């Protein structure tokens, strides 16, 4: 049986990044960049007006000015402003060559084809002109390699005309649900049966961290069938997650089936609760997690091991942790690291009732896991503990 931190270290050592893929800009959302991104253009690429109004020679602001032309946004033909004249310009549209300020239209009186500027003393040289490259210079570093792409980054890259980017690929995941007692939600429960929730738990968490390629298989408590299913999933996926059948019962075939399927075992059992019987192995660069069947054990192992491994493989940071003060005293009776369902508010965290690994009722209110260390015994109210925020 290994300690929690040892288990994390062993897993981290086995996580290998997948080949880089080039994806369309929108599909890059929540992926980590595999390259630095530089601006291919200067922005603005031409002198732009930031107001609807008139472009003039600042020196002529006190004179009546004849309207020479209009340059609406999208105009492709540059114009030279003639002396004694004004050209009508529009927000985001181009400014004629020669013009050195823009007067917003509210300050202008138009008489036939001539304008006069009111309060022209207030007009400054350069007013309302966005200069070329004033936001981005060509080859400016826009985003650093390994940045996890957010909607604001998509906005930035689209403005620079970028259509595709190279990102770290996300793993594809095979899920194997074991157990003769399982029934799919939607069917009647007969004696001795329980609804399969783990398949939903795992898929929901994976979806939340951006995994799109996943497949679920079911197998009864049978060594040969379990081995065959593991082999099959390993053929098509980078990660295999198995639930149930991993502890000491006569029908717990998962560790043996993994070994028979050519998986190298790195550890079996971690000094923690829930999730003590966790199995971890690899086949070449592929990771295999045997999670205990108890639903709360599945969730705690997802947060502590599976999702951090996915984060490491694809350069993301989906699991956030912080510290918070425990709001009430707690007696810890087991010499294991314990993960408790909690409710975090501000920097205080409440330990919720129903902490056994079969119990999910606390999930109605829980928003985090609280970690109590292996050596902890009596936890006094106000003690700072690490908490892992729910996705
Ligand atoms: N003699 C021992 N017994 C047990 C030990 C031990 O060390 N010695 N460890 C206990 C601990 S801790 C855990 S956790 C469980 C883990 O058991 P398994 O991984 O073998 O899982 P199962 O026995 O198949 O199932 C446990 C529990 O979870 C329910 N389950 C399973 N799959 C699902 C699913 N897809 N959806 C919902 N619920 C599921 C299952 O019905 C059982 O109630 O072992 C202890 N025993
Ligand atoms: O480790 Mo088990 O999940 O405590 O019941």
UniProtKB/TrEMBL annotation:
Source organism superkingdom: Bacteria
Short name of one Pfam family: MoCF_biosynth
UniProt-recorded Gene Ontology molecular function terms: metal ion binding; molybdopterin molybdotransferase activity
S-adenosyl-L-methionine recorded as keyword: no
GO biological process: Mo-molybdopterin cofactor biosynthetic process
Keywords linked to the UniProt accession: Magnesium, Metal-binding, Molybdenum, Molybdenum cofactor biosynthesis, Transferase
Name of this protein: Molybdopterin molybdenumtransferase
